[in-house]
Amino acid sequence: MKKTKTFPNNFFWGGATAANQCEGGWKEGGKGPSVSDHYTAGSRQVPRKFTREIDPNQSYPSHEAIDMYHHYKEDIVLFAEMGFKMYRLSIAWSRIFPRGDESAPNAEGIEFYRDIFLECKKYKIEPLVTIQHFDMPYHLCEKYNGFADRRVVDYYLNYCRTIFTEYKGLVRYWLTFNEINALSHSFGETLGGGILPKEDADMGNPFANSKTESPEVASRRFTALHHEFLASAKAVKLAHEIDENNRVGCMIAGTCVYPYTCNPDDMLASQQRMNMGNWFCSDVQVRGAYPHYAKRYFQEHNIQVTKEPGDDEILKAGCVDFYSFSYYSSACASADPEMKKTAGNMMGDAVSNPYLKASDWGWMIDPKGLRYFLNEVYARYEVPIMVVENGLGAADTLEPDGSIHDDYRIDYLRWHVEQMAEAIEDGVDLIGYTPWGCIDLVSASTGEMMKRYGFIYVDKDDEGNGTLERIRKDSFYWYQELISSNGESV
Ligand code: BGP
């Protein structure tokens, strides 16, 4: 067991959730439907489906979830009991603007989040707010096709202005878009970008359709992403204007991609994947300009990004203050077409790593990849970094005596914390860690409740049975001790 005194005293230990996966109350308090409300529940075998008509019998994922809408006070008490210094949550855009394009916000939605932030303040927990986490107001998708339409940038800005103003003094840390690079792979086209599929469609393999889509569809996707870049840059500028204490970050789905062999072709394949998969969005958001390699990628894929004069200046004027990312897994790239047939889980034709084990959901577990990735990010950008998602999705067993022995989760987290400590020793400016789903919630990729990440168990199953009681797992006490020793007890 490694002892470390590495973590700085003001390190932000905490946890992360997203409104669409935990709040429920999808029609309460004046909330409008969001794009995530149109996704059905799925499973490991059955993909989630986007449907234009919402099934009234559906309870998951976002309709009821863990009903944090009514339980947030007791949940924040539990976060405080673990010693959280930071709580990452998202604001459901459609609670603030139910349709997205109206001029006046929904007062009840504003008060709901104000109360959450006041609760956090009571326990000295710093909120880290994701402004959009897979839940654009559905009206913006239906009427404008989401971020494919440039007007949505203004609606996003209007929403930002409202929350920056209302929560001035209560919230200092913001993330503009959750996993913005999901849209560069097409996974995020609907959930992140709000672009509607022509008909009801499976969520399917997150990265599969980037291979088969036409140049027109890819161009629309990258133009929507360009609009998100503009929205993000303008939001950064606005946040600084409204409160000079505001700090705004990008949020990237971080996946290390190793070359499968030392064959130079594999090396180049991994570099290309790292470039377009990981770095493309943060190069724009941190450095304020499109990177050099994008030009060739666009040319080779016949992608036309629709830009307007002045956009380059907007991007330059809205560079983020810090870099944040989710980290679960790594992958390998191979230039060999035969190897690609053994495709891994998360990245389309990525190849599995024979040195690593996978989770029950097939995600490769690679703690050292986190140290590697942290070093790569810091070398590239030299800005403060937060790991804002990390964790093990696993099915837990509630024992007859009410305990949950999730030693597998403790191991997973411990290995990652050890590697974060190594990265800090390497010189990386890591300032926070908010593991994903600190309280059990609904899975984004499968829509299941049984894929649990939490330190806190929620009594609810995939059939909708359960009391919603919150129960401390063994990992709750492990994390509590870790925080109180500032990482030394790992
Ligand atoms: C990220 C999302 C989260 C979260 C997490 C775990 O991609 O930002 O919303 O859900 O992945 O994934 P899953 O819920 O599919 O296990």
From TrEMBL:
GO terms for cellular component: cytosol. It is an enzyme of class 3 (hydrolase). Keywords: Glycosidase, Hydrolase. GO terms for biological process: carbohydrate catabolic process. The keyword Glycosyltransferase does not apply. Its EC number is 3.2.1.86. One of its GO terms (molecular function) is 6-phospho-beta-glucosidase activity. InterPro entries: GH (IPR017853), GH_1_N_CS (IPR033132), Glyco_hydro_1 (IPR001360). The keyword Hydrolase applies. Belongs to the glycosyl hydrolase 1 family. This is 6-phospho-beta-glucosidase. The lineage of its organism: Bacteria, Bacillati, Bacillota, Clostridia, Lachnospirales.
